[in-house]
Please model this.
Amino acid sequence: MKCLRAMTGQSRKAGALQARTVDVTYRYRSSAEEPVLFELPEGDVKEMNAKQEEPRKGYNRLLGALIEAPWTVANGLGRLLYRFQTEGMDKIPSDGPYIVWLTEPGLLGMIVSGYVSIKVLKPELDKGTDNLSFFHEELFRVAYFRHLEDVAGKFRPLVPHSAPQLAKGILDGYHVLLNNGIVIHNPQGDATWDGRPIAFGRIAAWLGLRTGAPIVPILCSIGAYEIWPRWQRLPSRKGRLRLTVDEPFRLRDKPLERVSEQDVEEANARILEHFERSHYGPGGLAGWIGPVRRRGVEVTEPVQLRPPAKPLASVPPSRVKFNKRGVAQLLWQCPLCRTNDALIHRRPVFQRETVLCQACGTLWDFQREPGHDFRMKVLEGPPDVVGLDMALSTWYEHMTRNFCPKPIQVADVKLLPGEEVYLETRDVTLSPYRPNPLFDGWAGREAPKKQANWLQIAEWESIGEGRLLVTSHRVLWQGPERELDFLWSEVTAVSQYLSATLALHYGSAKYRFRLENEFVLKWLHHMGELARQVRALEGRTVNVTDH
Model:
């Protein structure tokens, strides 16, 4: 028997086909009694392989067109509605290594981020350049993103589940850059709630310092936040959207052999300075926020907000009507009287927008200023604040600065000695990340602190609905059949997912609480403050994303 070395196969370079060597045996018979084996001519082998490859090429072209179609449509709608434009595309290097720095200031920013990855960088990826993209793992619950690798070849999304795997992901990025590849990353990691920058992570800074590779800022303008902030249900029809590629810059001329935390902090400070100048326009962050005014006159002295001595409204705090929509999601506590869930954002079609506190009666005028932060001016309220005009993010800053958890009275719960309850709600869905011992007959009252096995991608599964309480000692979930304690001493991270879900890392295990008819930021701030208190007492780090 003889074997022929034929050329066939599919490459991993943006879906293009590239030859690789495989062993193929062809059998022919000259008669019914005796088979004869022989080698095919080289020309026949090429023709045969071409016929085999054509259907696959056509399939890849069709799949590639379907992958790009949503971003082509989004580009057209963006140009039509918001005069979307791209600037500085010629500044993208023709070859690696480099780090693409993306930003997502609002819900539209997430769409623009996908547009960059699929459309702007596609010519470079089509060349077969090695690359790695840091994605949020929840995107892989969508089949569209799970199939991107089939077409994009070496476009390998990273799905970090824990600190060790994240460290491995950083090393993957390091090796991609050493191979003259591209790393695509969003240092902020999430869309901002109030338009101000979120603290940068360490991945982009570490890679830039460790490899000396340039950072290429491909930044979405703050207009993405102004058009569709996270607290707004639908996008506004007003605003401008721009995507700008700035000049690449290096954090170091030569790679550092060892990168310290101080090195990362200094690098992030430099990245933040660049970000504020480019993202917010010529005036930077301060120019976008704007000054504090009182009756049209700029205020130079610090503003102190104190609760009014006497409420102005007839609605007592105990009867405050919950309104989940609008800016009340951000200002979950009145900045003046400090009553939770008290604000209502009124948006009539033909009249100006207003914000009302149902507890103290303070009334604000709410305005949009294109190219700047939203503004809130006190129309009615305590005499010392009437006429006070500040940016929305400044009112939010005052609210968080004056925040302190306040105990409440609850029933049907056995408290520990000295324990106080701060928040309570019902109909909360608890979903552990699978695999988890809770699905295998776990009998303990304290929630499992370790995963049962290797984590799967976005495998969350509900164990039911129950009552959720946040106390000075723990997070307590009371289900129909059991209670689970999450002690603050074992909590390692607190964060938010989308608009109504809290994420809790308990030891190395991961849990989610889906809240109904609750402001997630309120819960996040309470849990973040309690986690910080534990950190101060025990001298350990708790990661809190409370912005």
